[in-house]
Amino acid sequence: MSNETLRRAGVIGGGSIGVAFAVVFARAGWRVRLHDPDAARREAVPAEIVERLETLARFGLLDAAVRQVAECVEVVDTLEGAVADADLVQECAPERVEIKRELFERLSRAAPAHAILASASSFLAASKFVDETLSARDRCLVAHPGNPPYLIPVVEIVPAPCTSAASTARAADLFRDAGMKPVLVSKETEGFVFNRLQGAVLREAYCLVRDGVASVDDIDTVMREGLGPRWSVVGPFETVDLNTRGGIAAHAQKMGPSYARMGAERGQHDPWTPELVARVETERRRALPLERWNERVAWRDRELTKLVRHRKQSEDADH
């Protein structure tokens, strides 16, 4: 990366997510300054970063030497020192409104006027802790990662009503530059997309245990050996689109009533209306015309074959 395009990140919080984000940015060649208010945490961070980088290097997931990447991260004593020249500030503090509100007030004063101020919040929308009087309010948003983000690259970009469209787009560009896969969450909702999808599965898993349908281990096996591998290749919409000849509209017609009855068992009434199915079908057909359906099914099967082969080789190596 040339000096003209060198990116700088300020990471606030030296817990597991803060350390993980430091790894993400450093691996991309950014200069990173990390601050945690706890001196013991600050002292522990460098070794934790090296440990994670060594694991990545051992599996061929690091393009530079561990030492070279680790040297991109500087642990500093003050919040102001961490964000002084940052292009992107990533706040990784505990999930408490009062803590985040105080931090964003300080970040608004301390960070450069061009810096994006992002929170790693898992459930709290930015409007809960970003005061409308902040001078930097148009640059504040949530950037919620998968955990750990150096292995699960999706990051949810969730603007608040006060966030400018330009800042939202710039945040996505910065995370993309850092090697992540940003997705836009168009409106604030508790849990965003990642945890709402995860929560839906988890709620049903608890219900199945409660109702004596299956054991905890068997439910985990269904996810680990069934839905998990499939969803790692294609998501839920593409899964059913490819599972049914005629695509997702045919699936909704054939299977929609069964899913509606399952939802009703849980007191849920969210029908797949014709208008909603048509909207989803339009997006799927834009991504995959029906005349390419057979081709995509063959691709899915090849990708699953690669995954099965990799898992078998890994299991064989462990024995």
From TrEMBL:
Molecular function GO labels: L-gulonate 3-dehydrogenase activity; NAD+ binding
Lineage: superkingdom: Bacteria
Gene Ontology annotations of biological process type: fatty acid metabolic process
Ranges annotated as spanning the membrane: 6-26
Keywords: Membrane, Oxidoreductase, Transmembrane, Transmembrane helix
Keyword Oxidoreductase: yes
SUPFAM superfamilies in alphabetical order: 6-phosphogluconate dehydrogenase C-terminal domain-like, NAD(P)-binding Rossmann-fold domains
Domain 3-hydroxyacyl-CoA dehydrogenase C-terminal positions: 191-277
Annotated 3-hydroxyacyl-CoA dehydrogenase NAD binding domain residues: 9-188
Record family assignment: Belongs to the 3-hydroxyacyl-CoA dehydrogenase family.
Name of the protein this chain belongs to: 3-hydroxyacyl-CoA dehydrogenase
